[in-house]
Design brief:
31% of the residues lie in helices and 25% in strands. With 553 residues, it is an alpha/beta fold.
Length: 553
């Protein structure tokens, strides 16, 4: 029997998003969460980023299950892309999380192959050598849980995303009692959310937001448009409650928002007051001051409903001075530019825009320092592992644990792909496994690699020049052309002289090839490309992508 527990983060460390943690003991593997991340600004055309699961795919027969802590995209978003590679292991999740996963799998035609086991907080299950208990926690989505993972070496507490909310909208406060009981029994290791470790004090209660909404709705004679995370069921519930109070009708726009509201109502996580929720076709026919629209797009996503409203692409909603737009979400790191672009566009159309800075429109779903200290004190772990956060967050969390008396030798600040090995007496960083980013572009998973990204960046930065030549298949002599086409480099109609010069250089290159008996297409293309590239850099100090095309007759 193995004597070491291996914890292998494949995502979520030194970054925000694409959380995936592997627990391995002997022949058994348990996967915790399977999330996606947002692409960086230089990942042109990339839709989402998912973890590289090569290690798991190689060991798919050893996977005993995937357990999910909650239904946010950064914890479940990669499942439809990797589940088949992992051999369709059973998925364990609470009701709302399971419902959201089912929607995703159904879209990709995988639902009939998946095995999803629905549980409640307080339930336990076995997955190989592991015993897993679900513990209720507060977060910005309903049905969130922490995990107590029982291993042959002891219990590991994996908090997932959490906070301590003493006045939650639904479901009761985080189960601190259970954390304390586990601490008394003895906790081998604590893997804890580090997102807000740099914020002192305590996080604010979700219930505070309703008071702010009340102030926004009161005496407002405009149409109110609210955007928030689609998964924030409690926030949407508060909007519905305030809308009912002020006798407004509510419409939902945005596919993910519509799906989650429908699912939440079906599962009983959302209580819609009678007659408040209407179809968007009915909403747009009512006087603006009698309506509320709840929309996707809190992160400025280009395909979202709010983005389409801002840039006049929405089929039903035209933004104007009679609108009050409320952004009830904080910016995910990296999304600030896109959010600002949407806000500016809304303002340019005359709309009133109320957003988070300096307001109570959003409260965090992650524990601040004093809450993190509380869970640490209750669980009293032998080993401490900060997870879920950028590098500076993880190191700060280690400092906080050290300030509470934890020995630095008994903690591990890891990185994606680096194995954390735990024995009865030691914790250490072990050998790395394959880890990284897999880029998803449309239906293509992993087809966009570094070379493709480099080409896209080149095209975005410098543009492209296409050279079209018609050559004889007999002696490679020029039959027609060369024609020069510019895309993203210069506007052809305003650059006649440059285009003429490019044709001259291309013609000279072809004549050189003929006089030196170079008749293979590759050689001709190479000569044309090299000469044009040199000329363009010399005259413009720019290096567009040059694409020679030969048509044979």
């Amino acid at each position: 029997m193995a004597s070491k527990l291996k914890i292998i983060p494949l995502g979520g460390l030194n970054e925000v998003g694409k959380n995936l943690t592997v627990y391995e003991y002997g022949r058994d593997i348990l996967v915790v969460d399977c999330g996606m991340g947002f692409p960086d600004e230089d990942m042109y055309g990339v839709d989402v980023v998912i973890p590289d699961v090569s290690y798991l795919a190689k060991n798919r027969k050893r996977i005993r299950g995937i357990v999910l802590t909650h239904g946010h995209e950064d914890h479940i978003g990669a499942i439809p892309y990797v589940l088949e590679d992992l051999g369709f292991p059973p998925i364990y999740a609470t009701r709302l999380t399971a419902g959201l996963v089912e929607l995703k799998l159904e879209e990709r035609g995988l639902l009939n192959k998946a095995k999803i086991i629905t549980l409640e907080a307080g339930d336990s299950f076995n997955a190989g050598v592991f015993g897993v208990e679900l513990i209720h926690v507060n977060h910005s989505i309903a049905d969130s849980v922490a995990l107590a993972i029982r291993t042959p070496l002891g219990v590991v507490v994996h908090t997932g995303d959490f906070k301590i909310d003493v006045t939650p909208i639904q479901g009761g406060m985080t189960d601190l009692t259970r954390f304390g009981e586990l601490g008394k029994e003895g906790v081998l290791a604590l893997c804890m959310d580090s997102t807000n470790v740099e914020k002192s004090g305590y996080s604010e209660s979700e219930s505070r937001v309703q008071d702010r909404f009340d102030g926004i709705f009161k005496d407002c004679n405009k149409r109110i448009i609210v955007t928030t995370f689609a998964s924030n069921v409690h926030r949407i519930q508060q909007i519905l409650n305030v809308a009912q109070k002020y006798k407004r009708k509510v419409g939902i726009t945005g596919r993910s928002m519509e799906n989650i509201v429908k699912l939440s109502v079906e599962l009983g996580y959302m209580n819609v007051p009678d007659g408040v929720l209407l179809d968007m076709k009915q909403i747009v026919k009512l006087p603006p001051q009698k309506t509320v629209i709840v929309s996707t797009g809190s992160q400025g996503e280009t395909m979202s409903a709010l983005y389409r409203m801002a840039f006049s692409e929405h089929k039903q909603v035209d933004i104007g001075p009679s609108d009050r737009v409320v952004l009830s979400a904080s910016a995910i790191p990296g999304n600030e530019t896109t959010i600002t672009r949407v806000i500016d566009e809304l303002l340019s159309k005359g709309a009133e825009v109320i957003y988070e800075k300096g307001t109570d429109l959003h409260v965090t779903g992650h524990a601040c320092q004093e809450e993190l200290k509380m869970v640490y004190a209750l669980t009293r772990p032998r080993y401490f592992i900060p997870v879920h956060g950028e590098r500076h967050m993880l190191h700060k969390h280690a400092e906080v644990a050290e300030s509470m008396g934890h020995d630095r030798r008994n903690m591990a600040v890891g990185e994606n792909g680096r194995t954390i090995e735990i024995s009865a007496r030691t914790i250490r960083l072990g050998e790395p496994v394959i880890a990284g980013k897999v880029l998803v572009d449309g239906m293509g998973v992993g087809e966009v690699g570094s070379v493709v990204l480099r080409d896209r960046k080149h095209l975005a930065d410098e543009g492209m020049v296409v050279v079209v030549m018609t050559l004889s298949g007999v002696d490679a002599s020029l039959v027609a052309g060369p024609d020069i086409i510019s895309r993203g480099f210069v506007y052809e109609k305003e650059s006649d002289q440059l285009m003429d010069e490019l044709r001259r250089v291309a013609m000279e290159s072809i004549e050189y090839c003929m006089s030196h008996h170079i008749s293979d297409w590759t050689g001709i293309k190479g000569r044309v490309k090299s000469n044009l590239s040199g000329y363009l850099y010399k005259t413009t100090k720019r290096s567009p992508m040059i694409l020679p095309i030969i048509m044979e007759v």
